[in-house]
């Protein structure tokens, strides 16, 4: 029996990329004769003809399996569904737009054979992405690293190889706010990385605008860090310290020079400052409470409309 490798591909409106993606994957995996493989395509409620295209492929090639979700659940959930259904001894999540090069898979497998449980691919450069995206991504990974106790590797997406043992561990994490690369790191095991050059998207445009990315970053931070909740404590502590000094200053000043009324501007500044600080910390607390509320509903993560070739 050859070891089975599951390629897990979340797809949302990727019809332009599917044929090229399938060709590349089939080529790379076909060359690895020592392994069997399956390609699990998750149709994440696409509104174009992505589903028809993968159904055609699945008809011809039984290695292509389809999970059709009941609607668009977003990439993290699509990935969750795919990984859950994957039966492979190793599981490799990969994007359908060829931004994660399939040619790298043999190198991932090689590291796995050396005894690593997780082999992730770290981007050296990102082609065809705006400087704003590069800068925000750079900052996000660094802030995340500072705030979270988990060691989330910088410049690393979901593209990686995980052994069955790791996948089982990830599957046991049942939270509904899923920041997948956080979970992948959080489970631990022996992890290593290989560098690669990130391509531009083959066809089509990214479905992540800056608002989505901002929310994705919030998800990452709130899922793995309490630091923002503690922010209020430190802001409060600092302002208390500052006001102590300021009070002393006012007392001394009044002693020396008396107090000719005034004080309106500084009072307004103080009110606005504390108002702002309080609203901000309330907002932070709201982010967490909203997530607690969502988790407490314990809803299923997704619904599958149909499975093909399983
Ligand atoms: N994707 C998905 N559901 C969504 C959005 C995206 O399954 O709601 C898939 C998409 O088809 C692709 C991968 O997630 O395979 C990465 O998406 P995209 O290329 O838009 O993101 P980026 O590369 O810009 O981070
Ligand atoms: Mg992409």
UniProtKB/TrEMBL annotation:
The keyword Metal-binding does not apply. The keyword DNA damage does not apply. CDD domains: DPM1_like_bac. The chain crosses the membrane at residues 231-252, 264-289. Its main location: membrane. It is a multi-pass membrane protein. Residues 6-168 form the Glycosyltransferase 2-like domain. Keywords: Glycosyltransferase, Membrane, Transferase, Transmembrane, Transmembrane helix. Pfam families: Glycos_transf_2. InterPro entries: Glyco_trans_2-like, Glycosyltransferase_2, Nucleotide-diphossugar_trans. It is found in: Membrane. PANTHER family: PROPHAGE BACTOPRENOL GLUCOSYL TRANSFERASE HOMOLOG, UNDECAPRENYL-PHOSPHATE 4-DEOXY-4-FORMAMIDO-L-ARABINOSE TRANSFERASE-RELATED. This is Glycosyltransferase 2-like domain-containing protein. It comes from Sporomusa sphaeroides DSM 2875.
